Amino acid sequence: MSDRKDLIVGNWKMNTTHLEAIQMVQKLFYRLAATDHERVEVVVGPPFTSLRSIQTVIEADNMPIGLAAQNVYWESEGAFTGEVSPPMLAALHVNHVIVGHSERRAYFGETEETVNKRVKATLAHEMKPILCVGETLDQREADQTEEVLVTQVSGGLQGVTPEDVAASAIAYEPVWAIGTGRHADADTAGVGCGLVRSTVAGSHGEEAAAGIRILYGGSVNAGNIKDFMAKRDIDGALVGGASLDPDTFAAVVRYWV
Ligand code: PGA
After folding, report:
1. 257 vs 254: CA distance, rounded Å
2. Is 102 exposed, middle or buried (0-12, 13-18, 19+ CB in 10 A)?
3. 48, 102, 103 from 84: Cα distances, Å
4. Predicted pLDDT of residue 2
5. Is the pLDDT of residue 8 over 50?
6. Which residues' Cβ are closer than 6 Å to ligand 1?
7. pLDDT digits (tens, 9 = 90+) for 175-206
8. How many whole angstroms from 78 Cα to the centroid of ligand 1?
9. How far, in Å, CA of 111 to CA of 211, rounded?
């Protein structure tokens, strides 16, 4: 057994106004017990427009809930209309940044190079990246899963120190399982996460591989989370749809109950 703490992250995607977000985080807090937080690091990832409101609520009530942003630009300031920089997020006490989500790769032109820049910029400002990797259905059917994962993991972490890698997280999210209700079975997810860990071992060493937390993502819900968490190389989950209802997300967090 490793001493990696479970990490369960809600990715709210482009959902919720800041008013709805405040209610959601309050409900989530009241549905979780102090002992749950000892076992699981619980993180919510609202849209940028809700970060400030949620930060205020979390800090006012001393909630042991972490805050994630869903993206970040790599420059600190300047003429980049519409972008949000690492120091802006760090000033809101954002702890984690989701980087290279497959929706960003598919719809917003993310490349290995831009994903890598975002990972490094996140770490340079004392936040932790959650690097998202995963194959499409076409790639899986063409037997390219391993190649895709190796490319995305080593590309995303290029030039990052082993210490920083150990403090980071990677979410293995098969694209065909995201938002489809068609989750990977636990064995497939476990193999994918194992492949991610062995890739990290190859590129950054055994210590980095033993420290980094690897999450499964793709149609995780309260009914299937337990099977994923039983896998040796799965340290947590990145949860989309099921994180939008605080009752359901609390049930995902308390997966052993
Ligand atoms: P899903 O999304 O849980 O709705 O499949 C997961 C994700 O995209 O991170």
Report:
1. 6
2. buried
3. 8, 19, 18
4. 63
5. yes
6. 11, 173, 178-179, 217-220, 238-242
7. 999 988 888 899 999 999 999 999 999 999 99
8. 32
9. 26
Which residues participate in catalysis according to the annotation?
Answer: 101, 173
- Which of 108, 156, 110 is closest to 130 using CA atoms? 156
Tokens of 90: 């760090």
Q: Which residue has the CA at smallest separation from atom 7 of ligand 1? A: 240
Compute CA distances 231 → 151, 179, 202, 243, whole Å.
23, 22, 21, 21
Tokens coding 246: 């605080």
Instruction: Annotate 95-139 with DSSP letters as a single string.
Output: -EEEES-HHHHHHS---HHHHHHHHHHHHHTT-EEEEEE---HHH
Q: What is the pLDDT of residue 1?
A: 41
Q: Give the C-alpha separation, 186 to 164, whole Å.
A: 28
Residues in the chain: 257
Instruction: In whole angstroms, give the CA distance from residue 151 to residue 196.
Output: 10
What the chain holds in terms of domains, given with CATH numbers, is 6-253 (3.20.20.70)
pTM of the model: 0.97
What does DSSP say about strands 96-99 and 128-133: parallel, antiparallel, or unpaired? Answer: parallel
Instruction: Provide the residue type at 101 as one letter.
Output: H
> Could you tell me if 112 and 147 are in contact, meaning their C-beta atoms sit under 8 angstroms apart?
no
239 CA distance to ligand 1 middle (Å): 5
Q: Which atom of ligand 1 is nearest to the CA of 178?
A: 5
Sequence-separated (6 or more) residues with CB below 8 Å from residue 246: 24, 27, 28, 31
Protein residue whose Cα sits closest to atom 2 of ligand 1: 240
